Amino acid sequence: MHYKRVFLLLLIAKIGFAQQSDFKNIDFSKADNIAKTVKVKRLYKLNELTFKLTKNLNTDVEKVRAIYVWICNNIANSFSLYSLNERKRNRFEKDSIKLQNWNSKFKKKLFKKLLKKKRTICTGYAYLFKEMCNIAGIESKMVNGFGRTSSVDFSELTMPNHTWNVVKINNKWYVCDPTWSTGISFPEEGRFKFNFNDGYFLTTPKLFFKNHFPLEKQFSLLGKQTPSFLDFTEMPLLYNDAFKLIEEHQLPLKMDHEIKKDSMVTFQYKLKTNINLNKVKFVLFSGDNERRITPTRKSIQNNILILNYQFKRRGFYDFHLYFDDEIIATYVFRVKK
Description:
This protein is an alpha+beta fold and 337 residues long. The chain contains eleven helices and 19 strands.
């Protein structure tokens, strides 16, 4: 292992957890407004673009914010590139030479489309964010690993499927994911809709880890508390809206549960923002049947949302948590006699 990498690992372990709430006194409106007004047709002049975004901002975190928001508002996700890469990677999975050749060829194709068309996939987003931060004098790195969504089947996933970033601000490392902050792809319609999600910007590492497992574990920013890959695959499934509304998922610890009839289960979350407790609900699926149900008990104490539900019937249930119409998390319960 190189000395530089050892130093980075030790530094990350030393500095502790870092999150957006570290900057709760910073008003990002100026950075956001700059990001919304700067326009370019192509990305051939990154130095000039970065200068325009950061020249009137005083703090590194505001500069990072302007770069991040600009990328998320201007770089569209290319599902065609993603599909092409997935097909080729699966095809060459057992042939390392062909896979390496394809990766090299695809990298050129990816960056050409990024620079000319402002369309890309996760690797392009992470690369662009890293480069622009570095131009602004702010250290950032690309992180390769496993991203977890409702469409990912870990029993079939054999290679890393996602890339995101860490960025160093005020001598602390933070995690962010410009790809998942950008918007929503509609593959069947061949279109992409920009829809900025602030939840993946300088996210609490413990929450970020729920759907991001880095190949190099020091980039979890969790130090010795970094769970194993098996633990990662067993965690509850969180959706994009969860990252807007909660700062920490506390209970239950796993996605799949086997419990006895009449068991009371506790669901607990640290909130990032105020919510209407009356609009918190569960949606329960059993076979083809869907039921909307209210928690047996619910409360908010010191910004901690606590929900309890008693399972009074046997069965196999997909159990979804909603805040109003926004899906937050999914769990699975097998209720036995």
